[in-house]
Amino acid sequence: MTNITDRQLLKELRARINERKKYEQEVQMLTRELQDVTKKLRESEALKSHFISNISNEIVNPFTSILGLSKSILSVEKNDWKKVVSMVALIHSEAFNLDFQLRNIFVAAKIEAGEVVPNISKVNIRGIIQSIIDSFNLVARKMGIEIDFEWNIEYGFGKNFYFKTDSEKIKLILSNLLNNALKYSYKDSKVIIKVWADEEKLSMSVKDYGTGISDKNQKIIFERFKRLDTGINSINRGHGLGLSITKALLDVLGGEIEIESQKGEGSTFTINLPEAKNVVEGFSGEGNDIFFDDGDEIF
């Protein structure tokens, strides 16, 4: 049996104590990490539950309205066409909103599954933007909001400007930004869409004069399911996906988004998008197929 001196025994005890402290620190660190993961999972489940509750209403309510209005039209007297026109306009508004929300949901699912990739073509930027504005004009007029379009690109094929990018993703990006601007604008105000470009990138901004976004909320608005409860218009629907989808699609296209906002003074969202390097043949359409196109596949 080996004799151990007191000094050696003390050294061995110190080494074992230090080793035990190291293990305890690792356990504490792992415990904290586990607690953080558990907290995030609970928050995620709460957000998803809130999302499911919201989205159920977003789908059911427009369907209920459409069915009710359609039934009312059938009972309208033949000479009361003004009432029919008014009801048809409401049906269009509800169907437009439902189609828009469903597109966001479908794209969010594809993003979550990692199935979104660029589909590059030569895109008529002015045509696409104008079609989006036309799509939202009825909603904007209903809220008393004017949409101004400032085109600051002088070159290209006449009034048109072709840019290599993904037309469907650009449509949804700008649609979400415009929808967001209308949602948080005051009645009888305006929303301004500006477009400009240089040799390397395309830039677009959407400016509103609405409620604005606090510095605190600016840090979370691009997170999934985050929805600010400060909308002031009847269009204040949604499920907290719009801006997160916008950010995710810009990431796919190699673009970026910036926000300038002050509480009570409105917001400006600016996107910068580099032109795709892919060699492509042919051109995209004028962009007037946004919404209600049976042959239009989503990504």
Automatic annotation (TrEMBL):
Q: Where in the cell is it found?
A: Cell membrane
User: What Gene Ontology cellular-component terms does the record carry?
Assistant: plasma membrane
Q: What InterPro entries does the annotation carry?
A: HATPase_C_sf, HATPase_dom, His_kinase_dom, HisK_dim/P_sf, Sensor_HK_Regulatory, Sig_transdc_His_kin-like_C
Coiled-coil annotated spans: 13-47
For this UniProt entry, what is the primary localization, expressed as one broad class? membrane
Query: What Gene3D superfamilies does UniProt report for this protein, alphabetically?
Result: 1.10.287.130, Histidine kinase-like ATPase, C-terminal domain (3.30.565.10)
- Please list the residue ranges annotated as the Histidine kinase domain: 54-277
Catalytic activity, reaction form: ATP + protein L-histidine = ADP + protein N-phospho-L-histidine
Recite the UniProt keywords alphabetically: ATP-binding, Cell membrane, Coiled coil, Kinase, Membrane, Nucleotide-binding, Phosphoprotein, Transferase, Two-component regulatory system
Which residue ranges run through the membrane? none
Q: Which SUPFAM superfamilies match?
A: ATPase domain of HSP90 chaperone/DNA topoisomerase II/histidine kinase, Homodimeric domain of signal transducing histidine kinase
Return the EC number. 2.7.13.3
* Pfam assignment, any one: HATPase_c
Q: Name one GO molecular function term.
A: ATP binding
Fetch the SMART domains from UniProt: HATPase_c
Q: What class of enzyme is it?
A: transferase
Cited PANTHER family: SENSOR HISTIDINE KINASE RCSC, TWO-COMPONENT HISTIDINE KINASE
Task: Spell out the protein name for this chain.
Answer: histidine kinase
Q: What organism does this protein naturally occur in? A: Marinilabilia rubra
Give the organism's phylogenetic lineage: Bacteria, Pseudomonadati, Bacteroidota, Bacteroidia, Marinilabiliales
